[in-house]
Amino acid sequence: MTHNFSPFKQGAEAALEWLRKEYLSIRSGQASPGILDSVRAEVYGSLMPINQVATILTEGARSLRITPWDKSAVKPIDTAIREANLGVSVSVDDQGLRISFPELTEDRRQSLLRVAKQKLEEARVRIRAEREKVHADIDRDEKSGSVGKDDAFRAKSDLQKMVEETNNRLEEIYKKKEKEIFS
Q1: How many CA atoms lie within 13 A of 4 on its CB side?
Q2: pTM of the model
Q3: Overall CATH class of domain 6-24+105-182
């Protein structure tokens, strides 16, 4: 009898996706529309994501162009970006807004790398928690007698392989972000 690892796989995928999203909010020297994902502007009487009220385009390596669909949204978008304190400069012109990303200093790069490592560790903690849940299930099945010792050992071994695979994928995501921060 094989163990059902789908809850672990779902939890692992959720942790991977969480790390990817967290890394989008860590600003590197490159312009990325993802940095604005968490910013909400008060438009039409409610807080809305910027990408739902404007077009966001990359304009060169270190700037973004935000073109609101309604010109009355320029001021609220400008205010929301400035209040989000993203470390970017905002300028308003006749087409909309331009977001400029300053060149990163070595200290800032090291600081961003520490944040990236912290996020990586948080994702690993999530994976360990998922592993512990499955371990507990296997142990419970073994104690109840529905799974033999050999099957339980094999299931734990398979689980460990999946954990190592997931940790390798997390490490790949981290290495990619590290390269992005220092490029």
Answers
A1: 5
A2: 0.68
A3: mainly alpha
